[in-house]
Amino acid sequence: MEILDILIIGGGPIGLNCALEAQKNNLSYLIIEKGTIVNSLYNYPLYMRFFSTAEKLEIAEIPFICAAPKPGRQEALEYYQGITRQKELNIHLYEKVLNVSKDNGVFDIVTSKSRYKAKNVIISTGFYDIPNLMNIPGEDLPKVKHYYTEPYPYAQQKIVVVGSSNSAVDAALETYRKGAEVTMIIRHSEISKSVKYWVKPDIENRIAEGSIQAYFNAEMLEIKENSVIFRDEKGQSHEIENDFVLAMTGYLPDFDFLQNSGIELQGECLNPLYNPETMETNIQNLYLAGVVCGGKDTHLWFIENSRIHAAIIIKNILKS
């Protein structure tokens, strides 16, 4: 069996950047991706627009041409998938990595389709796979959605949006404008400060005028077939009619996979242990890249500030 220089787990922007850096340095590599190219971006809301400008999303100094000030989901898919085609990156799609182990200095990687060996492994799996659950009764009902794509299915429906981040605000505004009756349940005292600056006044004004009902310092208690129960900031419980719950409560990395690969997780945020100067974990030659480095704190790393991980990792591999 061929022993690759590098096996990259995850075909998102940072995984692709790692592959481009390996390719530039004549290292043999393979990307294993469980979905399509930049699968997380593919699953973003259809009309989502990035906070970052196009140049901050570029990888390998390949220009990201975009007419709009902020690129949207479709432009990003065209850019990253176009790079994959143009550079003929070695990538296997719809193949899930099941296990990573190490024997005699070589990694053995078992997937849903095959088995591979590599001298180095880079985990760049992001955090969009596992919803951050509320752990309340009824959360498993079909009407509860942890992923939001577009507003049209929710026209003329009674919608509860849980959360106050960008995804929650986008879902609330878009469904409201398609005729939904929207109630937001927000555990904090205000809309998140991380919400896109051009969207934040919109949601605040819709709440102020009463077009969207919002309960701050509130908590969901139970989801029923035709209603939801929540507690307001005064501790009083309310039950309101409801057709759909959009639980925009965030997402988590696959901590079980990281631990099963031998990576130590630390603290309440389950931060994976790695050396920021090399991105190498406590397992020699096993590296992390991208937002997976942040543990539960998924707001630490973005495409724009983790693009550097690829160069750091490849430099360290070439030295060893």
Sequence-ordered SSE layout with sheet pairings:
Blueprint: E1 3-9, H1 13-24, E2 29-32, H2 39-42, H3 73-86, E3 91-92, E4 97-103, E5 106-111, E6 115-123, E7 130-131, E8 144-145, E9 158-162, H4 166-177, E10 181-185, H5 200-209, E11 213-215, E12 219-223, E13 227-231, E14 237-241, E15 244-247, E16 251-252, H6 255-260, E17 265-266, E18 271-272, E19 274-275, E20 280-281, E21 286-288, H7 303-306, H8 308-319
Parallel strand pairs: 1-2, 1-6, 2-3, 6-21, 8-15, 9-10, 9-15, 10-11
Antiparallel strand pairs: 4-5, 5-6, 7-16, 12-13, 13-14, 17-18, 19-20
Helix pairs in contact: 1-8
Descriptive report:
The protein has helices spanning 13-24, 39-42, 73-86, 166-177, 200-209, 255-260, 303-306, 308-319, and strands spanning 3-9, 29-32, 91-92, 97-103, 106-111, 115-123, 130-131, 144-145, 158-162, 181-185, 213-215, 219-223, 227-231, 237-241, 244-247, 251-252, 265-266, 271-272, 274-275, 280-281, 286-288. A hairpin with a 4-residue loop joins strand 17 (265-266) and strand 18 (271-272). Helix content is 23%, strand content 26%. With 320 residues, the protein is α/β, with parallel strands linked by helices.
